[in-house]
Give the backbone structure.
Amino acid sequence: MHALVLGAGRVGQAIARDLAADSTWRVTLVDRSPEALASVARRAEVHTVEADLADAATLRRLAGDHELVVGALPSFLGFAALEAVAGTGRPYVDISFFEEDPSVLDETARRHDSTVVMDCGVAPGCSNLILGRALADFEKVERFVCLVGGLPAERRWPWEYKAPFAPNDVINEYTRPARFVEGGEVVVRPALSDLELVDFPGVGTLEAFNTDGLRTLLRLPVPWMKEMTMRYPGHAEKMRALRESGFFSPEPVEVEGARVSPLALTSKLLFRQWRLEEEDEDLTVMRVVVEGRRGGRRERDTWDMVDRRDPESGLSSMARTTGFTCAAVARLVASGRFQKAGVSAPEEVGADAGCFEAVMAELAARGVRFERRVEEMESA
Amino acid sequence: MHALVLGAGRVGQAIARDLAADSTWRVTLVDRSPEALASVARRAEVHTVEADLADAATLRRLAGDHELVVGALPSFLGFAALEAVAGTGRPYVDISFFEEDPSVLDETARRHDSTVVMDCGVAPGCSNLILGRALADFEKVERFVCLVGGLPAERRWPWEYKAPFAPNDVINEYTRPARFVEGGEVVVRPALSDLELVDFPGVGTLEAFNTDGLRTLLRLPVPWMKEMTMRYPGHAEKMRALRESGFFSPEPVEVEGARVSPLALTSKLLFRQWRLEEEDEDLTVMRVVVEGRRGGRRERDTWDMVDRRDPESGLSSMARTTGFTCAAVARLVASGRFQKAGVSAPEEVGADAGCFEAVMAELAARGVRFERRVEEMESA
């Protein structure tokens, strides 16, 4: 398989290295930064191409030369890249987490009979695989809850947080209203609301709060669904204080004769403190709960995952969990085990037991282990 | 007595109204704002003059027409006003809380044989009166602690704070290193440090933290002295988080092509939330502790004061406690009970038992009551 990986950031690097480790794959990695490319090339057998990933013509040409494309771009470049590649009919697996609605490209992908899978990371990603599997496994899924957080191992006052992905996307998570499903209806809550404490063995107590992470899952026939983000306790209170005081507002304010967006200044100040350095240990913590009827009983499946940076590979936990999931789905698409013309979400991959088990097995082989606990619940 | 009051803000208004209530006083109130002047004139028999208080020539002319001057100006105007008035030889009582060292005007005041008393508010002010009295009363004062806070009665998330005086001066309190005396030596601690909890009957639990409020008291022969500011618990932690992240830095930062002082933007955003409205109920909370040897015993005097806005007069608690103290000292100076050529601090007024009791009695008559508790301590 001859694959093109777009983006040599933390996640793109993990994907390229993971795919290249398989001798039946040839991997071309594209990025604007020669340093980022060189850093990967030192560690894995990848062909590198220095190019501007915002240039659609270049993307189309490169995609045309490969059998499969994997997108690991900053969110603001993700949709345009998918749009460029979709026109070539090449299968595409993406983790760029862009905001735009990819369904407008569904028609194009179908016309080329090509398989496109978006949101193939942890959450969205693994959470979708689990719910997709549950919908096939349960007679009826009644409730889905996903708690997820990327955290620094070292808790440093005052924020006790480092951003394992673009920090703008973090503040965006704290301001974008969160959409849930309650009693079959979509409801909207403010981000950072409904704070609760959650204990994770080996990690300690974390706080969970509402964020808008359900994305494609909102379409599924599950009457109760919510997604929450986890941080060390105290983080949300400070973020809310900043947000409610206007520090996250993009609207310019007049200060000493100049007009300034508080969000821009706040981003600048916080990102100095939130920068996850190459050598910083991070962890990914996740809990997915699915409740429903199965085999005549009411059951609850709880999936827990705690992953840490791998000092040997130097890959951050966020890069591992996101990148390995994406690479695993890319393999399913390459082998034809997952094949569906159009733009799919990972819940469609997870619906197939074989595909689901394959992804979970690949993650486990790389140390990313989901522990599943099944409980019987009282009948409602 | 024909008195000139500079400034018709919250405190100047309280002073003017209090002095004008005495039929033997004629009060002229000066301010730039006709609205502020009219508001006082509706409530008290004061003569009003609309003038720019930053204009030294005007100040000199006005001072020359009066027997005594009281300064209740914003801190940035305070020193220049004192300087202008000192040249006229008129006695001056001030609560402008300016940062400059007034001792450079001591020579001028002495030459005119005029009495100048600065810092005549609550803290500095009442705290200085108490320590001045204690130094005369005890054989040896070993320790002085002053805890003070101006608070809104209604605690509103997230800051639980309103600024009863210029908000810039509040952030300045949170950034200026705090000077204390420990074992006879001046030590410097960061503002907002050494957080502790303090219970006040009728108010509840407050937090106290280091601020730089000792000012003239630093000169006194007391081996242990500290001043702390009180807020509702949680405030200091958030302020420290902002400070440590650079939000209080005056150094410009480049944001979207413009250069902006984070402090200027932060001030603008926070002051919207910190604005104490005319009808907001505020309270002043104070505890002064003096320990030392008296009559052969080791004793501790604890002075507690809790004062609230007076709905009848419409005067905020900060205006009451500050303004009434200033008015009381103005009466002492006017009557000649306190007379000392040069620039004095309130501890010099408090050294005289008669002066001290007179101020305390005037405060009590207006509902501002200090409760004194005397305890015997174990011998060291």
